[in-house]
Amino acid sequence: MRLNxxxxxxxxANVAGVSVYxxxxxxxxxxxxxxxxxxxxxxxxxxxxxxxVALDATYRHTASTRITGDDPAQxxxxxxxxxxxxxxxxxxxxxxxxxxxxxxxxxxTRIIALGHNTPTxxxxxxxxxxxx
Length: 132
Description:
This protein is mainly β. The protein has no helices and ten strands.
């Protein structure tokens, strides 16, 4: 089993024109992303010498981003908005096969099932690990 917890903090970003924050052409201002928390717990269980089942469980929460600035095409030109927070709970079950101690293949999927301002997604995953 492993447990990973991370917190990220961002500083202000200058924003000019159209951006990922939804600002319009001509906008001049700043964005202040909120803090983001990520927790990942993972388990693996060896069924045999070659076969392993794995499961990751994840949680992510990101606080709202505050955008402030001016848009000359708008009256009044001052813009202040918040993007809103988002969060998600996900699971990633997988099956691993170890051909040799140096070669293994993993096949699984990542499922984001529960979320706030986050879409539900199912993403296939695969990996080949070769240790030399």
